[in-house]
Amino acid sequence: MRDQALFDKIDLHLIRVLHTVLTERSVSKAAIRLGMYQPAVSASLKKLRELAGDPLLVRSGAGMVPTDAGLRMLQPSSSILRAAESMFTDARGFEPATSRQTFRIAASDFLDPLFLPQLVAQIKQQAPHCPIEILPLSAESDYRARLAQGEVDVVIGNWLKPPDDLHLGRLFGDEVVCLVARDHPAVRRESQGGWDAASWLAGEHIAPTPTHPGARGVIDEHLDSLGLQRNITARCPHFGLIPSMVASTLLVLTTGRQYCERYVDKLPVKVLPCPIQFPRLLYYQLWHERTHASSSAKWLRERVKAVAASLRKE
Predict the structure, then answer these.
(1) What is the pLDDT of residues 57-93, one digit of tens each?
(2) How many domains does the chain have?
(3) For residue 86, which of 313, 306, 301, 296 has the smallest C-alpha distance?
(4) Which residues contact 194 (CB under 8 A, 6 or more apart)?
(5) Which domain holds residue 145?
């Protein structure tokens, strides 16, 4: 009976406050995100602490951190909120024009720089009331866990061997090329036939910071398979800044042609063929079984596919 009485005191609003406070690790930030006054969030947190018999969030230095009990509540609260968000939407069928469902997209910025802006524009045009959260694929982000827990709807990126425990949809393939400054010595060597594998390996390369712990990236994974190693002298977590770095240095960026060609008319850079043969870069969208049959998630995946197809036609 006690468990039932406790359960009767918990509503969805309290679960939302709990999840937001634990993820923001701040009552004031949680209030802003929830659109509530701070005293109201504090009152809800007090009630949650009484129900849990635990402080849930404690001060640590200048900030706050979840307790062990709080951390254990993070994943279940996320699952409850995501299930509640989609329960009635999918029962009725997804109506983009009136839905207020939040779409969460984790994406690599290795993509064509026009991809995410056009995807957001298309979603907002067709589903104007749906909030959109674009999340990075960073070293701190476990995208498999976030998909499984419902914190992300779809992950977009490129993998040499995409994970086989997730659903995937192929978006497009691309040729691997090099981006260098217009006055880079490689430009002259390439015209004279001296831009060879040895020159490329010895050059000063810039590469993205790995997207998750232990990740090597498709370029270096393939080089490993050939028993080769390039000379990486710079790494950057912000792929969109790399072309500007290349334009004023001797750095070499090796990535997809579609990405590189977006910068040829904007920066003093040149696209060169890569002297080492690489398999085509394959870009995918990945999603979890939990959203495979969801009508709103299907709609989102169709938007991703449509934007990718439109960019390939340019």
Answers:
(1) 998 888 889 999 999 998 888 888 877 776 666 656 7
(2) 3
(3) 296
(4) none
(5) 93-171+282-312
